[in-house]
Amino acid sequence: MITRRLGGLAFGGDYNPEQWGEAVWKEDDALMREAGVNLATVGVFSWALLEPEEGRYDFAWLDAHLDRLHANGVAVDLATPTASPPPWFTLAHPDALPTTPDGVRLVHGSRDTYCLTAPAYRAAARTVASALAERYGDHPAVALWHVHNEYATLCWCSHTAAAFRVWLRARHGSLDALNEAWGTAFWSQRYTDWEQVLPPRATQWHRNPGQSLDFSRFFSDEVIAAYREQRDAIRAVSDRPVTTNLMLPGYQNVDLWALGREVDVVAVDHYPDAPGLDAAADVAFAADRARSFAGGRPWLLMEQGTSTVHAGDRVLAKEPGEVLRHSLGHVARGSEGALFFQWRQSRAGAEQWHSAMVPHAGPDSRIFREVKETGAALARLAEVAGSVVTASAAVLHDSDAWWALSSDGLPSSELDYHPALRRAHRALWDAGVVADFAHPEADLSRYRLVLAPALYLLSDEGAENLRRFAAKGGTVLVQHFSGVVDGRLHARLGGYPAAPLREALGIRVEEHRPLRRDERITLSDGSHGTAWSESIRLEGAVAVASYTHGVLDGSPALTRRRTAWYLSTRLDAVDYAALVGELLDLAGVRPALPGLPPGVEAVTRTGERHRWHFLLNHRAEPVSLPRPALDLLTRRRVDALPAGGCVVVREGRQR
Amino acid sequence: MITRRLGGLAFGGDYNPEQWGEAVWKEDDALMREAGVNLATVGVFSWALLEPEEGRYDFAWLDAHLDRLHANGVAVDLATPTASPPPWFTLAHPDALPTTPDGVRLVHGSRDTYCLTAPAYRAAARTVASALAERYGDHPAVALWHVHNEYATLCWCSHTAAAFRVWLRARHGSLDALNEAWGTAFWSQRYTDWEQVLPPRATQWHRNPGQSLDFSRFFSDEVIAAYREQRDAIRAVSDRPVTTNLMLPGYQNVDLWALGREVDVVAVDHYPDAPGLDAAADVAFAADRARSFAGGRPWLLMEQGTSTVHAGDRVLAKEPGEVLRHSLGHVARGSEGALFFQWRQSRAGAEQWHSAMVPHAGPDSRIFREVKETGAALARLAEVAGSVVTASAAVLHDSDAWWALSSDGLPSSELDYHPALRRAHRALWDAGVVADFAHPEADLSRYRLVLAPALYLLSDEGAENLRRFAAKGGTVLVQHFSGVVDGRLHARLGGYPAAPLREALGIRVEEHRPLRRDERITLSDGSHGTAWSESIRLEGAVAVASYTHGVLDGSPALTRRRTAWYLSTRLDAVDYAALVGELLDLAGVRPALPGLPPGVEAVTRTGERHRWHFLLNHRAEPVSLPRPALDLLTRRRVDALPAGGCVVVREGRQR
Amino acid sequence: MITRRLGGLAFGGDYNPEQWGEAVWKEDDALMREAGVNLATVGVFSWALLEPEEGRYDFAWLDAHLDRLHANGVAVDLATPTASPPPWFTLAHPDALPTTPDGVRLVHGSRDTYCLTAPAYRAAARTVASALAERYGDHPAVALWHVHNEYATLCWCSHTAAAFRVWLRARHGSLDALNEAWGTAFWSQRYTDWEQVLPPRATQWHRNPGQSLDFSRFFSDEVIAAYREQRDAIRAVSDRPVTTNLMLPGYQNVDLWALGREVDVVAVDHYPDAPGLDAAADVAFAADRARSFAGGRPWLLMEQGTSTVHAGDRVLAKEPGEVLRHSLGHVARGSEGALFFQWRQSRAGAEQWHSAMVPHAGPDSRIFREVKETGAALARLAEVAGSVVTASAAVLHDSDAWWALSSDGLPSSELDYHPALRRAHRALWDAGVVADFAHPEADLSRYRLVLAPALYLLSDEGAENLRRFAAKGGTVLVQHFSGVVDGRLHARLGGYPAAPLREALGIRVEEHRPLRRDERITLSDGSHGTAWSESIRLEGAVAVASYTHGVLDGSPALTRRRTAWYLSTRLDAVDYAALVGELLDLAGVRPALPGLPPGVEAVTRTGERHRWHFLLNHRAEPVSLPRPALDLLTRRRVDALPAGGCVVVREGRQR
């Protein structure tokens, strides 16, 4: 693991020295030492410098930076530069630029201007990755390989169409099978030749949902294939671990379960999209997802901002203390360090307003002081490296379900996926419970409670898996509009959800009744729902709460059969939290450190001989600790968490 | 008429057996019998199956289904499949795909992916229609031909440009006339060669309104020509009636008056866009339009949903009882039956969430039970077939005016057309009065009251027609921004509206004064207006109500000269209803059944010897009848309408 | 000057007789005399008539109109018709049509359908302008040349790309310099061949801000070059002055400082975008800008509407009296007349709803009566021609800053430019103070107070200029997010704003803290701010007001060092007005006529021997004058301004 090479947790960020000159490099060296930086990501956007014309490489400048960093005690996470092809490449290979569903070929002038399926691009990417790996495979500074950057660019061009067809042949075997899967008997869409099959480009009205879903699956596989090519080229000449960084919030173009299996360490980028407590909850949401995609193994926070909160049409600043608190929030949930984009705020270019470790204002600034504080804290936590985080509650997550919920023609625009997952995770976070994410077909036996929101698509295997989980006494909450289509997007017939799950839940959903925009209904237990309702028949379950109005008056809204619960509306946050709280009680899931007030987060990492309790106070007032403890960050005995402060306590582990 | 062949009213829906297999077909047979289905629309989306490659037909599967249906007592409304060309066709004829104003050629993958003006498409459509007609022209199951489906796809490609030019030559005769009509002296748009004339594609700023209007007229004519080609091909070999189904709400691409003259029976599709009482009013609005387009003759509700209310970004469910109530709402206003899209809810494809007669949940469901109830009711109403509905009030409707109100450069975005018609119809519906729609140039002598909302464009003939109507004592209400341009979109000079109408109204509108968004004004009679105001001079009229604020303070808002009224603002619904109520009184128009509470609808169909009163209770409480009556639906004597219930009463006609 | 030729102020408008016939022309002659029209803009949209096919000119019709106008005492502002190429031109030269960033080539059918960089277009424009100038260069009716109309059309085609490269070579000298300026080291954008450089077309994500800024600069230069070509062709054969009309509100495609230097008289078009007092303030805003672009010399209001207030999705009417009040509002601030678009409201075409001097309703109308009243008023003000308006307060304006604030990737969408300038100007207008606009690098010594809102980009020269201004005792208010990037969009390092200005202000801005949408903060002096806040360190300044919440609690919000003020948030209008009022007091700037109530505007024009005070009452009540005076408009002694009325008073000047 990288922490062994670093001798502790990773701390640092993207380092783009090519934007600066000699004098600044000297200052960088000094400031990195001052801040405790031990890992720098280099070369993410350097293709144009590394290969100024096709086939001619200029490594001299990079040699110098790597040597300098190494001499300064900073290891390097060396990036392949393939996320941003240089202008000469796109001029020579216009067919390797991405094309929109409308057929508009985008041009150079931003970043990510490549078509992942274009042979010229794939070849160029392999070649430059190989050249880098050959040059630096054994460089003592290199601790990690960073393939590409935030794979995300979709394309609908003719290369993509050709690749899509190859993928479809492999998946479906025959056109007959594809026709059956996509339901092409409807709307006269039956394909009689592979050449007729296209990506879901601009068309007259609704697109075929099966086609759209398969296109998402195809593109995810294509991303993974592109990653593998570079990874394998690197592995051929270097023994250092290889990864690629995933953009977490809303990152929908890749199945992260699958990608997680391909990287040596899961690395994620995380930028919250709301300030304050919401940002803290979002840190936990991202970190729990990252750890889950890593299969529970340690992972790495590759990017965060020192002062970047994306809030719609503006970028809010972080509050004092959040650089440390967010960093420790990630470490607490399994990250082996905390890295930032980027070391020094760009003077020019499209991200000159993206925050950095050294802001425009220079080192004499609040931000750089907080960066140093955070570097010092991480240095003191070297011992937690390699320890793990365990959870007894899980939220189900499946990219297929996410993609499926992007289909045209769904009955309501309020059938969201990502927000539904966040609401489920937030309810657990508010209750002080650390949660995993789990694939519906994964082994769930380690969990006592499983939440299944927005699981529109649920495969036969997934449905059987959930049935089995409940049958063995696991508590499960299935939420509205879940399990209604199978893995081919075919609707479940005879009543929703999928039969084995229906049996476990003891219900049959006969009819969906979307609520009107802004309609808010009351259930018999006084809770409130929006967006959705369903007509349910009890077939073994009891109604825990019922609808109280209109057609559904008296009809079950929330049901239970033994440990299997079904919720047919979108509860208000407070009511949903109460329900989840009740389920946690019933399932016997307890918070890591009970008795903490709201806004104080406690998470435990477990090593071979110790446990480390991370206590993060997101409140503006100090909070007393249950009992005095030695704080690893300050090496002092403390009996309270300061306002906005953090304490890490080591505890011996009874084995 | 089709009802003669069926022996009563039509009941059934679109039937797409190609989406299912043997076992389901068997169940279909049984369930259709159970539900009283006597008519199924077959083949709407079957081109890919019927003609799996160019020129090779496969009729065997369709033979089998038609024979099966026939054996089961279900007649067939046989569709030509031309609304959804198969993938092989679009691959072979990319020029037959539709192109957007931006020049984006859409691709296969949805439905309606054809360019109506492409010669290859038109030829293929004629050919497949002929082949079908030859095969099934005499089939005993076939009761009706259903050409295409919801003609709606616009195109801006070069085929369209060429066809547009041919149409323009025919309409205008010369380029000089076109230049004069379109006012090309402005903005240096004078055409000197036909080749210069284009469809209104993407351009720098406002498009020429004359060009846009003529393009709408051209496209409507093109639709009708395309329909005629198929109809004539069918008529050549079959004696069954021919129609095409019109999509009613907001269906703006075809002049339905013109299309109504071409079909053997007007057939419409109707999906309400709001729940509850609004849906009921919308049923009446659609049905009255359909009957009017049919020239007062019986027509056919070809599609509705068992549980489909399109409400913006979601599809709401229908309430219990609405399947029957909406169906009878259509029948009461002249439909010879009630059909649905579709028989069985699709398992896959883009409309898998569209409601159906047999839902995903299967026949053991509320929806199927209501379907059966509706089938039974229609069976008991066989005797009403062929009877008619008469009205003594009318709302003026002209596609030219609608299209004209879509012009660029109008003074306010609140100058709506379709909503204005709905408001006018709703005021009459709320008053219990059945209304026709009438073309401004039509014979209006059968009406006592005519409402003219949003009649921006009014031809010289139309203006003279309205003047004559008023001169003969007809009560007419002309509403704001009406009669301001002539049939070529040239503004009326010297004061609006068109001179003969101005004289009848006794006013001269000098100036339009659009109101600000959310501005609400008060008139002297306490009523309120939004969106619009006008500066009016009285030239023979009296002011019934005046403006009370600002520039227009004291100036006439609502005027009257004998039976000719002019309203210069958009009144609030309640005030507008009061005004329409007053006009009804003055005109001597009475509801079909006076004394009913709001939300109870009464409509009368008149046959040779009987009248049938349809009473529909849209309220949640029972309502007493004026006197006990024999209900044809239950064959029982009733003295009240149950909550949400329907009663149909036969009455002998005194001749 | 044109007023010498006219013998007074200009009055009239665009005249498009080609839309009408003989009878109307006769009426036009009479009505123009009745209204006092002395200048008509002819030929703006006449290319198709003037040159009905390439190289063949038809001048006969124009000869006749010019002779007729001349005979009627109406001088002509003769337009080159190049803003609207005729259909034959675009058919022959499709490459001369504009192309969007998406690559969509727009078509004929609107106006402004040309690509300014297309060689064919430029050649055709020069040729038709030359032909016109040769024909009419000496025509006695011609008083002014009107090149093109509202230059505004952008393009992203390959001609544009080529021209952009030529411009970039000239500006930057080398690719190295361009790479440095645009910061292409970031995102691997380094250019190695000029062919790689493109206009900022549709790309994957954020565009390079340097590229976008240079494209704006390039396009502005291209507009000026195109203008110059026509101007020089005209000057070669005519001695009449030459101008082009600028569209003022939001007109962002041309650097109006630069264009102002190229025209013989600055001519602007102005349409307010809100009714009432806002419209009056907008008149002053536009007029002060126009005068400033003219370098203080008289200018000309080339277009306004008699009843056109563009308010989002609708066009509101003007109130009675506004035709005169707006016209005098422009004249008071230096316009040598008041012209309208257009003389007679179009009967057809895309602007048939644009108001005009003679409306559809004809001369017997409120609008024409107000037109006549305005014509009479201007005739009585002939003596003010040539006089000037002086100001001792200025608002800084720089197109570079405006363009820069359109960059992708800025930290908030509320960093607006044009609205910020309007807010600054409005505060001065509300205080009764006439303001100039000034370029940041201009000589500011004539001003006592300078406001610098939204000056995101500030060159080194500009920063030094402001420092010098303050050092000499000038009062300056620099507002948030100003001075943060230099002329190449490179961020100022070490703290904002640019160093010399930072020193003058005595502050260092360390951090930007955008506020949340709808967040409203309170400062220590009770004022309120929205949109933005900053973390400031005092380095010589004092805090006049501080933040009172959160991170910035107690930190300076408004600072002052001697006469140099810095405001780090966007104050509410009332608070901002109070601050500007205080600065006016401190700077010793007094309104033209103190003591007037709000809504009464007073502006002074100064001639060689007289001063003329324009008093405009925008209120609905009469207002007493400080002392009785002779009103030039009525030639009567008045002691009050009527409600909504205007008075102009001449005063002898003490020299």
TrEMBL record, chains A, B, C:
Signal peptide: none annotated. Residues 14-380 form the Glycoside hydrolase family 42 N-terminal domain. Substrate binds at residues 111, 149. InterPro entries: Beta_galactosidase_C (IPR013739), Beta_galactosidase_Trimer (IPR013738), Class_I_gatase-like (IPR029062), GH (IPR017853), Glyco_hydro_42 (IPR003476), Glyco_hydro_42_N (IPR013529), Glyco_hydro_b (IPR013780). Belongs to the glycosyl hydrolase 42 family. This is Beta-galactosidase. CDD domains: A4_beta-galactosidase_middle_domain. Its EC number is 3.2.1.23. It catalyses: Hydrolysis of terminal non-reducing beta-D-galactose residues in beta-D-galactosides. Keywords: Glycosidase, Hydrolase, Metal-binding, Zinc. The keyword Transmembrane helix does not apply. The keyword Metal-binding applies. Zn(2+) binds at residues 115, 155, 157. The active site is at residues 150, 303.
